[in-house]
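Subgroup meeting minutes
Present: P.N., E.W., G.H.
Scribe: E.W.

1. P.N. recapped why we're keeping a running log of single-chain structure predictions: easier to compare across weeks, and new members can see raw inputs and outputs side by side.
2. G.H. added today's entry (286 aa).
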Amino acid sequence: MGADKGKKLKAADKNDEENAEQIDGDLVLSIEKLQETQDELEKLNVDRRGNSSAKPSFASIYKSLSKTTQINEKASDEVLEVEKKYNEIRKPVYDKRNEIIKSIPEFWLTAFLSHPALSELVTEEDHKIFKYLSSIEVEDSKDVKSGYSITFNFNPNPYFEDTKLTKTFTFLDEGTTKVTATSIKWKEGMGVPNGVDGEKKGNKRAHGEESFFSWFSETQQSDDEIHDEVAEIIKEDLWPNPLTYFNNEADEEDFEVDEDDEEGKGEGSDDDDDEEDDEENGEEDD
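Output recorded in log:
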C-alpha cells in the first residue's frame, strides 16, 4: 500500500511539472508570435514612410502652384491620403496582435508599469483593475485629420459595469477640440468617491494618488488646442509597439542588479583605500 501511494504522489508531481512546462511553453510561443506580428507592423511603417516621401511630386506642385498656402494644402492632402491607406492596411495586423496579447497574462498592466511616464499614473488600486484589461485600440477618424479615439476593452470585473471605456478627441473647424469620454458606471463601493482616485488635497489631488481612471472624466473644452499628454503617449508611443515596454521589465531588473554590483565594488574599493591609508600612517609613526 505504501509503495502504491508513493507512486501516485510521484505521478502527480510529474503531471504538475509537465503542466507548468506546458504553460511556460505556451507563454513563450505567444510572445514569439507577438514579436512576429510587431515586426510585420514595423515593416508597414517603414513602407509607409518611404511611400509618403515619394508620393507626392513636390517639384511638380511647386511648378504648378504659385502660392505657398496652396502648396501646403496640397501636400497635406497627399500625406493624409497615404496615412489613410496605411491605416487600412495596418488594421487587420493590429487586430491579430490584440488576439495574441489576450493569451499573455497581464500584458497591458506590465506594459503600463514598465513605461517611464504611464507607470506614474497607475495607483496600487488601479493595478487590480488593469488585470481585467483585455485590449487597447487607437483609431484615427476616417479622414485622419478630424481626430482620434482611444478605447480600453475589459473583461467582466467587480469594479464597473462597462466592458469598454472610450475617450474621443474631435478637432473642430473653428479651432476648438471636443473631448468626450465614457462615464464609468462604478459598481457599489468601487467608484472614485470610495477611494479609487485617492483624496484631493485642496483643489488639486496629489499626482501620485490620482487614479488613472480619472483621465476618462477629464473632458474640458478649450478655445486652444487641448494638450492631453496621456492620450499622446498612448497613441504615439505605447500603442505602436507595446512589446518594447512589456519586455522592459526584465531589462530594468537586470539594470538594478548591475547597479547593486557596482555599488558593492565601490564600497569594497573604499575599504581597500582605508586599509592602505592605515598602513601608511603606521609606517610614518615608526
